Amino acid sequence: MHLSSVPEAVNQLFFLAALGIWTGGIFVLSIAAPLVFAILDSRTQAGALVAALIAKLNQLKLIGTCVLFVTSVVAYFHWEPEISGTLAARYALIGAMVALASTSAFVIAPALQRLNREIGSIDREEVTPNRRRFGKLHTVNSSVTAMELGCGIATLYTV
Q1: Using an 8 Å Cβ cutoff, are 88 and 121 in contact?
Q2: How many separate domains does the chain show?
């Protein structure tokens, strides 16, 4: 490896690390959440644990957004001065990931939290209007997160 390519390799390492943590976090959480609900006796406690994990993942995604943005700008100005179709796809996919993650973190999650507080304990079997709203919103959030994961995986193919 030539010394002049070291900064490019380091930049790409940070890009891939941020993308890997982001998409990997979603993937791991998609496996862990159902396990938490299956193992814990209380759905209320399981929900609180998964909500805390999602909040932490959202913080990591915010950091990842900054890293992806900075490394993409650096790569553009230093090594990729012309936007090819692949590079345009990468930027579009990252933009979609940021939009989807922002929708989930700043629109859907607060609504889910508000509904969860109004519902109280989810260990009770009764189905209320708020519980139905929570279920529908949870389904929407799962779909948004799945699209976010898909964009992340597709972004890997643009590197």
Answers
A1: no
A2: 1
